[in-house]
Design a protein that fits this description.
Strand content of chain A: over 45%
Radius of gyration of chain B: 13 Å
Shape of chain B: globular
Largest sheet of chain A: 6 strands, mixed
Order of helices and strands of chain A: EEEEEEEEEEEE
Distance between the termini of chain A: 42 Å
Number of helices of chain A: 0
Order of helices and strands of chain B: EEEEEEEEEEE
Structural class of chain B: mainly beta
Number of strands of chain A: 12
Helix content of chain A: under 10%
Radius of gyration of chain A: 13 Å
Largest sheet of chain B: 7 strands, mixed
Number of helices of chain B: 0
Structural class of chain A: mainly beta
Oligomer: heterodimer
Chain lengths: 112, 114
């Protein structure tokens, strides 16, 4: 069995400040973990993917995520938010025995 | 690569009508997925195919929904008859490997049933 919990449904930050979107997961197997981003009226776009090669994963647009097995977390961060980062972000868990499980999403708002 | 292609991008229809959504996956990808997204229920997996064979259709809401994949480059999702509660954005995604591999999403079809 697997599940994913996004701890915040909404996050608001000022432009230029750090972004932290939190995600906890559970999986009976060694998991693959993803972050996807969805801009308004668009499809989901892959930001980054963890598959056990390295615990710190760098993605597109300056985002990165750190896999912490002891905390079963895979939080998404960015040092400095940009207005164009405003979107919905989905944390996703998968493993070889199961299909992907999507979180409920975190809406990121970026203010001036 | 053109990415996953979906058509139409928008569909408005009346209750009781048949609706057909279309998807062309990324060339070479072996798995194809149909999702539905609504405000109330979020993103739901409806069905997925591997090598053109339906593997898991447990998410298909009811008999009014059907999906086919006649070949590796084309899939359809059909709703007959459509109901207002079917209004949603329907996404198609494809992956190179199986269900747990990276999925690449199309732009979606926004369906409105009046």
């Amino acid at each position: 069995a697997q599940s994913v919990t996004q701890l915040d449904s909404h996050v608001s930050v000022s432009e230029g400040t750090p972004v932290l979107l939190r995600c906890n997961y559970s999986s009976s197997y060694s998991p693959s973990l993803f972050w996807y981003v969805q801009h308004p009226n668009k499809g989901l776009q892959l930001l980054l993917k963890y598959t056990s090669a390295a615990t710190l994963v760098k993605g597109i647009n300056g985002f990165e995520a750190e896999f912490k097995k002891s905390e079963t977390s895979f939080h998404l961060t960015k040092p400095s938010a940009h207005m164009s980062d405003a979107a919905e972000y989905f944390c996703v868990v998968g493993n070889t025995a199961s299909k992907l499980t999507f979180g409920t999403g975190t809406r990121l708002q970026v203010t001036l | 690569d053109a990415g996953v292609i979906q058509s139409p991008r928008h569909e408005v229809t009346e209750m009781g009508q048949e609706v057909t959504l279309r998807c062309k996956p990324i060339s070479g990808h072996n798995s194809l997925f149909w999702y539905r997204q609504t405000m109330m229920r979020g993103l739901e997996l409806l069905i997925y195919f591997n090598n053109n064979v339906p593997i898991d259709d447990s998410g298909m809401p009811e008999d009014r929904f059907s999906a086919k994949m006649p070949n590796a480059s084309f899939s359809t999702l059909k709703i007959q008859p459509s109901e207002p509660r079917d209004s949603a954005v329907y996404f198609c995604a494809s992956s190179l490997g199986g269900a747990a591999d990276t999925q690449y999403f199309g732009p979606g079809t926004r369906l409105t049933v009046l």
